UniProtKB/TrEMBL annotation, chain A:
It holds the Pfam family oligo_HPY. InterPro entries: AAA+_ATPase, ABC_transp_ATP-bind, ABC_transporter-like_ATP-bd, ABC_transporter-like_CS, Oligopep_ABC_C, P-loop_NTPase. Belongs to the ABC transporter superfamily. The keyword Plastid does not apply. The keyword Kinase does not apply. This is Peptide/nickel transport system ATP-binding protein. Residues 10-261, 304-554 form the ABC transporter domain. One of its GO terms (biological process) is transmembrane transport. Coiled coil: none annotated. GO terms for molecular function: ATP binding; ATP hydrolysis activity. Keywords: ATP-binding, Cell membrane, Membrane, Nucleotide-binding, Transport.
TrEMBL record, chain B:
GO terms for cellular component: plasma membrane. CDD domains: TM_PBP2. This is Peptide/nickel transport system permease protein. Belongs to the binding-protein-dependent transport system permease family. The keyword Transcription regulation does not apply. Its main location: membrane. It is found in: Cell membrane.
């Protein structure tokens, strides 16, 4: 028996939700784990695995209505059962001994109070200090989390800070009262890769300095590997594996853990087909597929050539104010070969999505030429454009927003055919729609369903099928797999690859994730502040990045366990 | 090219469209569903009255004036009906009293009466006709008005008029508001500025004043009332739809529609409109309630439906004079009938808002 009891121990936690019909669904199925004082435990799982529900149960933030925690569940914090604690006790603990950092810093901070005000409020609620002392302490905290000019930042409002700075403020608020346990729920998911690394380093440093225990919740096993002492892998509400981080990465026992580790694209290799979860859960042994060679070849034919493309955003201030314009895409040029993939990477706000929209003329370009097989698309009249629009299509990032919720799948898939006169009557179009649906791996009977009846990955398949109905030649994938879980992401990437092999599609693959881009791209274009900073063959670019920004991006990719950033205590 | 298989196109199973989910949610909402039933019953009655199935003889004078409701036949204030003999007797009494007072100086002799000849002719003619005394009821289920018309029948006919005015007015207002709001929100720019200016001018005039001004200019009748109310009440819907279209036009599904080549009209009315239709439905039921009340006010003030028609407002307009004499039943019947419908409609609006909101799932 361990002489020092763990700081937090979750015992047989069982949480179920009741929907409007009264059917119960168990989100957490009797899990138990401990968090020792001063250690970092990571809770890893895909969406719907119950990891966030667990965190909410610990802080008792679950909705009272429609949510049921089994009677024999226990969450012991310092020997006290949180599930039976009074509201008074909970209020003292939350923000005091237990602090939380959430995924979306913008929506977690109150927009009408200054940053300083919000930290001072936390301090004065939980510690017996005067306003003046609280102010001093708040400045010190902002300094500790690495905000430049903390004095000035005290009077800033959340919208005046960048996403990374907002998250630093959230962390400052969390550590304000020297908590014993910090719960970080996907704290870096909404941030850019380079910022993500900084926040992680900050968290690791603070954890060591203050001797806090951290419960780190994430969907990204690689990220967790850099930071955690122990890893708990959750799937469908139960724990699949709970082991020290080294064992998880070097000798994973559970097939699901193995699958999670493998289905994310790696920089070092490029299999012809990504492994998916199913490959590991079956009885049959998984065989490594051959590696795929990428890069433009000498005999490739050019399908799209972009020359000096610029896009400006205009804004008008009042009726008589001057027009302000901001350049979102600045002099970008590249060529896309038929049947090849051009990856476009960059952080948020770098203009990569605007570039994609401008190519489709969904956003007006200011200067430049877009030559589609020699024809300048930007100079076409709307009537001439119609036919070109069919040949260049886009798959958006958010599969929940890009399908009209009031349309059935049949309507969604037949509408483009109707508009472009493909198929002679409604019946034939329905037939074709069913064929395409089967093509992207969905059953034909899904035609009668509505978008909300599908999961994220399935919806993205429908969005891809919608593009395919028009027989496009170029497909722009604007962060098309970014909103998906890693295992689903692997399936969609495999689908995209299979479609390219079969139909000879050319892809413009826009993403912030360098590993995914490397997996799918022949050439890669790196964008920063609207400009193209580097354009090279994928293998060349990743092996020998020329531009410092490219190197910075590559360094920021989570490398998993062997590249631990945390100085360990011997 | 996808392979063409020979399986028949997917049978249209009853899958869960958002509308169907909303309907199911409304069914489960006990208050909302009862409100829907009440509104439905009113609509059926109004339809029956409008098509002449019931209450088509509402103008017949079937009872004694101010015949009390059957249940309160004894408790009602006593109504004295004067006939010609009573008047003559009273007249004689007055004349003799006057004669006593002023020694006959003011009375006219038969030769001086300028109407004497006409009166005699009229009396002769009246002898040619046979006057039949119609049997008149002493009491009616909901009583009678001053001319002895059945309040129940008037009520049914009035419901038909009021609902017709309310619903037609609401539909027209909704159409104006939606089309203008959609154009304004979707296209923005100069068109938006122009429409917003128009809107501001319209809303800067007090509603009631505008309503009365329109009504005073355009004469009486159901058609006028509908037009007047539609022209004054589209503004709320306009603002709502403008905001919704502004929000939705940037959504990815609308961009996706643009990408597949859908034109502006298709994007506006085929893609966006169904996604805001739940708001329109709620707006419709709220507008109907408001317009039914407006109609009552207009008719009460004498700008409403014509004299040959009856509506709740017209019935209420008779109430002040009746109440003075203690005949309360017409007012009570209209008030109860109207508040039941208005309450049911309001509750239905609330339930619809909850049931149809796609965000709450």
């Amino acid at each position: 028996m361990n002489p020092t009891p763990p700081l937090l121990s979750v015992r047989k936690l069982r949480v179920s939700f009741r929907d409007e019909h009264g059917h119960g669904a168990e989100a957490v199925k009797g899990i138990s784990f401990d968090i020792p004082a001063g250690k970092t435990v990571a809770l890893v799982g895909e969406s719907g695995s119950g990891k966030s529900v667990t965190a909410m149960a610990i802080t008792r933030l679950l909705p009272e209505h429609g949510c049921h925690i089994a009677a024999d569940s226990e969450i012991l914090f310092d020997g006290r059962n949180l599930l039976t604690a009074s509201r008074r006790e909970l209020r003292r603990l939350r923000g005091g001994d237990i602090a939380m950092v959430f995924q979306e810093p913008m929506s977690s901070l109150n927009p009408v109070y200054s940053v300083g005000e919000q930290i001072i409020e936390t301090l004065m609620l939980h510690t017996r200090v005067g306003r003046k002392a609280a102010y001093q302490r708040a400045v010190a905290l902002l300094k500790e989390v690495g905000l430049p000019t903390p004095d000035r930042k005290m009077s800033s409002y959340p919208h005046q800070l960048s996403g990374g700075q907002q998250q630093r403020v959230m962390i400052a608020m969390a550590i304000a009262c020297e908590p014993k346990l910090l719960i970080a729920d996907e704290p870096t998911t909404a941030l850019d890769v380079t910022i993500q690394q900084q926040i992680l380093q900050l968290l690791a440093g603070l954890q060591k300095k203050h001797g806090m225990a951290v419960l780190f919740i994430s969907h990204d096993l690689e990220l967790v590997g850099q930071f955690a002492d122990e890893v708990v892998v959750m799937h469908h509400g139960s724990i699949h594996e709970h082991a020290p981080v080294q064992q998880i990465f070097e000798a994973p026992q559970d097939p699901y853990t193995k699958a999670l580790l493998r289905c994310r694209p790696h920089l070092a290799q490029r299999p012809a087909r990504l492994p998916v979860i199913k490959d590991f859960l079956g009885d049959s042994c998984y065989f490594e597929p051959p590696q795929r060679q990428r890069g433009y070849q000498a005999d490739d034919r050019v399908i799209l050539e972009v020359q000096g493309l610029c896009v400006d955003y205009h804004s008008r201030h009042g009726w008589f104010g001057g027009r302000h314009s901001q350049r979102a895409v600045d002099e970008v040029s590249f060529t896309l070969m038929r049947g090849r993939t051009l990856g476009i990477v960059g952080e948020s706000g770098c203009g990569k999505s605007t570039l994609g929209l401008a190519l489709m003329r969904l956003q007006q370009a200011s200067v430049g030429r877009v030559l589609f097989e020699g024809e300048d698309m930007l100079a076409l009249t709307p009537r001439q454009l119609r036919d070109y629009k069919r040949r260049i299509q886009i798959v958006f990032q958010n599969p929940y927003a890009s399908l009209n919720p009031r349309f059935s799948v049949a309507q969604i898939l037949t509408e483009p055919m109707l508009l472009h006169g493909i198929g002679c009557d409604a019946e034939e179009r329905l037939q074709l729609a069913g064929d395409w649906l089967e093509h992207v791996g969905l059953p034909r009977k899904a035609l009668a369903k509505y978008p909300h009846e599908f999961s994220g990955g399935q919806r993205q398949r429908i969005a891809i099928a919608r593009c395919l109905t028009m027989h496009p030649e170029i497909l722009i994938c604007d962060e098309s797999v970014s909103a998906l879980d890693v295992s689903v992401q692997a399936q969609v990437l495999n689908l995209l690859q299979a479609l390219q092999d079969e139909l000879g599609l050319s892809y413009l693959f826009i993403s912030h994730d360098l590993a995914v881009v490397k997996h799918l791209s022949d050439q890669v274009l790196v964008m920063q502040h609207g400009r193209c900073v580097e354009l090279a063959d994928a293998d060349t670019l990743y092996a020998a990045p020329q531009h410092p920004y490219t190197r910075q991006l590559l360094d920021a990719i989570p490398q998993g366990w062997p590249h631990c950033i945390k100085p360990r205590v011997a | 090219m996808p392979h063409t298989s020979t399986t028949p196109p997917a049978a249209q199973h009853h899958h869960n469209s958002l509308t169907r989910i909303g309907w199911r949610r409304l069914r489960r909402d006990r208050i909302g569903f009862s409100a829907l039933c009440i509104v439905g019953a009113y609509l059926l009655l109004a339809l029956a009255a409008w098509s002449g199935l019931v209450a088509s003889h509402w103008q017949d004078e079937v009872a004694h004036p101010y015949a009390p409701p059957t249940l309160f036949a004894g408790a009602a204030p006593h109504h004295v009906e004067l006939n010609a003999a009573d008047i003559d007797a009273a007249d004689r009494r007055a004349t003799s009293a006057a004669a006593l007072d002023s020694s006959g100086a003011t009375g006219l002799s038969a030769s001086e009466d300028p109407l004497a000849a006409d009166l005699a002719a009229a009396q002769q003619q009246s002898a040619q006709y046979r006057s039949t005394e119609q049997a008149r009821a002493d009491s009616l289920p909901l009583g009678a008005d001053q001319r002895g018309r059945d309040v129940l029948q008037k009520l049914l006919q009035g419901s038909a008029t009021s609902l017709q005015v309310g619903i037609a007015g609401a539909l027209l207002a909704l159409t104006i508001g939606t089309v203008l709001g959609a154009l304004s929100g979707y296209f923005g720019g100069l068109l938006d500025d122009l429409l917003m200016w128009g809107y501001s001018v319209f809303t800067s005039v007090p509603d009631m004043l505008l309503l009365l001004a329109f009504a005073a200019v355009s004469g009486r009748g159901i058609g006028t009332v509908v037009l007047v109310m539609a022209f004054t009440s589209w503004t709320g819907t306009f603002r709502l739809m403008r905001a919704e279209f502004l929000k939705h036009k940037g959504r990815e599904y609308v961009r996706a529609a643009d990408a597949i080549g859908a034109g502006h009209g298709r994007r506006m009315f085929h893609h966006i409109l169904p996604n805001v239709s739940h708001l329109l439905l709620v707006q419709f039921s709220m507008l109907t309630v408001a317009l039914i009340k407006y109609e009552a006010i207009l008719s009460f003030l004498g700008f409403g439906v014509g004299v040959t028609q009856v509506s709740w407002g017209a019935m209420l307009a008779e109430a002040p004079a009746e109440l003075l004499q203690g005949y309360w039943w017409q007012m009570l019947a209209v008030t109860l009938c109207m508040s039941l419908l208005v309450t049911a409609f309001s509750l239905l609006s609330d339930s619809l808002r909850d049931a149809l909101d796609p965000k709450v799932k």
